[in-house]
């Protein structure tokens, strides 16, 4: 049994992009689905769909590559872990990697990118970073 589905999803995406796979399958949870929505809106993945197989759900993610075949994702890292949660206020969540990267934050208004959370004036749990 996997305790942290988001960490497992990030690892699967990292491994698939290193092996230059087109598609990878993730275990479904609402949190993972909303994080994939942020990744897609920021352009780190091509697309994702939720697939129901009987009573189990999976998320099929299409990895994005540039015209040279290099993965768009340089680094993807889990920040808040089950043993040590990381929380930041809205003023602390501004820019990451001079605007080239994105921090995903779980707020009271849902899962948002660092820019959206800063504009909305909300803070929350810092889930992961990607650039």
Q: Describe the largest sheet.
A: 5 strands, antiparallel
Morphology? globular
Shape-level CATH architecture: 2-Layer Sandwich
Rg for CA atoms: 15 Å
Helical content class = 25-40%
Number of strands: 8
Low-confidence stretches: none
Q: Please trace the helix and strand order, writing H or E for each element.
A: HEHEEEEEEHE
Number of domains: 1
CATH topology: Dna Ligase, domain 1
Which keywords apply here?
three-stranded antiparallel beta sheet, single chain, Dna Ligase, domain 1, about 25% helix, 3 helices, alpha+beta, about 130 residues
Structure in a nutshell:
26% of the residues lie in helices and 34% in strands.
Structure description:
The protein has a single domain (5-130), classed as Dna Ligase, domain 1. It is built from three helices and eight strands, in the order αβαββββββαβ. The protein has helices at 5-18, 30-42, 114-120, and strands spanning 23-27, 45-53, 56-63, 76-78, 87-88, 102-107, 110-113, 124-130. The strands form two sheets. Strands 4, 5, 6, 7 and 8 form a five-stranded antiparallel β-sheet that branches. The chain has a three-stranded antiparallel β-sheet with strand order 1-3-2. A hairpin with a 2-residue loop joins strand 2 and strand 3 (56-63). The termini are far apart.
Element layout with pairings:
Layout: H1 5-18, E1 23-27, H2 30-42, E2 45-53, E3 56-63, E4 76-78, E5 87-88, E6 102-107, E7 110-113, H3 114-120, E8 124-130
């Amino acid at each position: 049994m996997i305790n942290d589905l988001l960490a497992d999803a990030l690892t699967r995406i990292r491994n698939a992009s290193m092996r230059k796979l087109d598609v990878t399958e993730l275990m479904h949870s609402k949190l993972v689905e909303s994080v994939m929505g942020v990744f897609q809106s920021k352009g780190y993945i091509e697309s994702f769909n939720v697939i129901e197989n009987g009573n189990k759900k999976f998320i099929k993610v299409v990895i994005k590559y540039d015209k040279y075949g290099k993965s768009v994702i340089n680094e993807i890292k889990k920040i808040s872990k089950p043993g040590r949660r990381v929380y930041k206020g809205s003023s602390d969540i501004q820019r990451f990697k001079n605007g080239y990267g994105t921090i995903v934050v779980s707020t009271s208004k849902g899962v948002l990118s660092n820019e959206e959370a800063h504009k909305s004036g909300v803070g929350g749990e810092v889930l992961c970073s990607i650039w």
